[in-house]
Amino acid sequence: MEAWAIENGYQKVDGVELYSEGDDDWSMMTNTDIPAGTTIMFIPSNLVLSSDAVVKEYGSNFDLELTENALKQMERDLAKRLPLFRLLVKILAEYEKGENSFYAPWINSLPTQYYNGVSMTDACFACLPPYAALLSMNERNAYSRFLNAVRKGFLSLNPDVINDDTVMKFAYNVALTRFHEVFEPARQKL
Questions:
Q1: Cβ neighbours of residue 83 under 8 Å, at least 6 residues apart?
Q2: Which residues contact 120 (CB under 8 A, 6 or more apart)?
């Protein structure tokens, strides 16, 4: 994965290395002192998946708009989660391409097991403190709505991909755990 990233413009300061304990997940580490304020890595925009880029790529695709409208009709509050939904769609599209995907080295390096609300059972929720259970249930409910919207058939994704629960949970968890909303002061709160 690191070779792919470097080939595509990724840069890092000397002393910073990718680290993994058993290929389950990756992190960054250093064995040298790095002065405060040092830029430790640069990731070019062509490696960053963003909901804005998904809109540009699929924006003229009426299928994405239909699917987003179906999602908003399921639950009004899900309109706030459209950036996450768009990332899910992009990850599914790239997953479907397999080794032909530009992002295949990155996708293949990701963990396949996650421990969050999407993977919990009702018995798991019962063991959690009330607020943690509420947040976890909300996440599982959002996943369920996203799953239903994708499976409505508006998107031109392979049915073998979108009907595979394991793939859907993987793609959702990848999007969820790598999703970061950038605050825009001009954006009105819904």
A1: 51, 179, 181
A2: 136, 140
Q: What is the CA radius of gyration of the chain?
A: 18
2: which residues sit within 8 A by CB, 6+ positions away? 10, 18
The model's pTM is 0.84
Check: CB of residue 5 under 8 Å from CB of residue 47.
Answer: yes
What is the number of residues in the chain? 190
Confidence (pLDDT) at 77: 74
Angle CA 27–30–31, to nearest 5: 140
Mean pLDDT by 10 residues, the chain (190 residues): 88 86 76 89 89 81 77 79 90 95 92 88 92 93 91 88 95 90 59
Q: What is the pLDDT of residue 186?
A: 61
